[in-house]
Amino acid sequence: MGLMAYSSTRSCLVCVIVGVLVIVSYANNLYNDVEITWGDGRAKLLNNGELLTLSLDKASGSGFQSKNEYLFGKIDMQIKLVAGNSAGTVTAYYLSSQGATHDEIDFEFLGNLSGDPYILHTNVFSQGKGNREQQFYLWFDPTADFHTYSILWNPQRIIFSVDGTPIREFKNLESSLGVAFPKNQPMRIYSSLWNADDWATRGGLVKTDWSRAPFTASYRNFNANACVVSSGSNSCSTSTSTSTSSSSSSSSSSSPTSANKAWLTQELDTTSIERMRWVQRNYMIYNYCTDAKRFPQGLPPECTI
Ligand SMILES: *[C@@H]1O[C@H](CO)[C@@H](O)[C@H](O)[C@H]1NC(C)=O
């Protein structure tokens, strides 16, 4: 009897420990936040949702999208890019709404030959109009390890950051200059790994080396501190937030509480502006705002300030 009492106590302890582990791993689980959308088995959720990998071979690439649609947010993802000879491959990670007059906020990583630098390509579309490319080299090897790529999107500005360092800001200049700003159309996150050797390698200069396939990019630690829009209600509008916030409380997407909604009005402080200038001075390799040849009628209005 004594022994049985002991063993039932012990199995209860095991139950409690297992329960705690389940809750902890659930808190950062890509199963909650994304769904694989294409690639016929080439995209994989691994380690109980801790890791996602996309792969590309000659027959197909692969991709995923977020389950939620967001209208403003601070969204972080850690990505480790295709290593070795990745020339011709493009890893796209972006926010986009639907339709002809869609909004879009893009990160695209253009692969390169082993040892040659990746290009980080960025763009912003508002109401269907893009043509706002800025490209950068990175100050580290993005294939050696995971790095955090973030989009802060609030009603005043869009800030692209890499490991917490801002690299680009697109301000809301709608009222001052009449430049459309993404602010009404909810966007989803999309990511894909695909072959673009017809343009990504400086106009198709280098072709994808299929003997190196499959190419793989990895994702982890997704975090969306964002306003989630679902069936017309927005988790950030106070009165209707209850159901959305409770359904997302077990995932890494969460609706803002007064404690964590600072991102909704966040702006760059002096130190961040200096760091962004450092990146732009040393690592920016293309800026549409200085490409006068491309805009014979004059540079876009947001470039004049
Ligand atoms: C690849 O490396 C070459 C040589 O360093 C560089 O000019 C180019 O910008 C790099 N990126 C791509 C995508 O071609």
Record field, number of beta strands:
17
What is the rounded distance between the termini? 82 Å
* Class inferred from helices and paired strands: alpha+beta
**Unreliable parts:** 1-26, 239-251
Q: Write down the overall mean pLDDT.
A: 88
Number of helical regions: 5
Q: How much is the radius of gyration in Å?
A: 22 Å
Largest sheet: 9 strands, mixed
Bound molecules: 2-acetamido-2-deoxy-beta-D-glucopyranose
Strand residues, percent: 35-45%
What overall form do the CA principal axes indicate? globular
**Helicity, as a percent range:** 10-25%
N-to-C SSE series?
HHEEEEEEEEEEEEHEEEHEHE
List keywords for this structure.
305 residues, alpha+beta, 9-stranded mixed beta sheet, 8-stranded antiparallel beta sheet, 5 helices, 17 strands, 18% helix, globular, binds 2-acetamido-2-deoxy-beta-D-glucopyranose, Beta-glucanase-like, secreted, hydrolase, EC 2.4.1.207
Provide an overview of this structure.
One of its GO terms (biological process) is cell wall organization. The protein is of the alpha+beta class and 305 residues long. The protein has five helices and 17 strands. Strands 2, 3, 5, 10, 11, 12, 14, 15 and 16 form a nine-stranded mixed β-sheet that branches. The chain has an eight-stranded antiparallel β-sheet with strand order 1-4-13-6-7-8-9-17. The longest helix is centred in the N-terminal third of the chain and has 25 residues, at 2-26. Bound molecules: 2-acetamido-2-deoxy-beta-D-glucopyranose.
